[in-house]
Write a structure and sequence with these properties.
With 138 residues, the chain is mostly helical. It is built from four helices and two strands. It has one domain. A two-stranded antiparallel ribbon has the order 1-2. Helix 1 runs antiparallel to helix 2 and helix 2 packs antiparallel against helix 4.
Amino acid sequence: MVEKDLLLKEVNHRVKNSLQIVSSILQLQLPDVEGTGAADAMRNAAARVLAIAAVHERLYTGEDATVVRLDTFLHDLCYEIGRASGCPDGINTDVERVDVPTDMAVPLALIVNELVTNVVKHVGPPATSRYAAQPDPL
């Protein structure tokens, strides 16, 4: 059983590294398509690939490769999305501890990545958001 766990962690480590390479290749192509809709599509694709890579990183650094601790994963994912969007403090989350099966982690990561990047794209990063300065309506 120990050998199986080690092999699984090694596979997840290699998958994460491969996905990071794919994301980097997409980023390297950005100067060739800057100023077009393709540039945004490539940035979005690179972010999606990195979200999946982050799940695989959790799988090989965690104690149990069958589950992902969603609260810490979402915290780290949102923090990185915020930093990449120009918010030096990232985006903070407030999520209770939840462990999800590994097969649910990738789709959840992609959904959260889409939601958070769309908010940042259409509203702006938290520090510069047009909603950040508005008083609480209550």
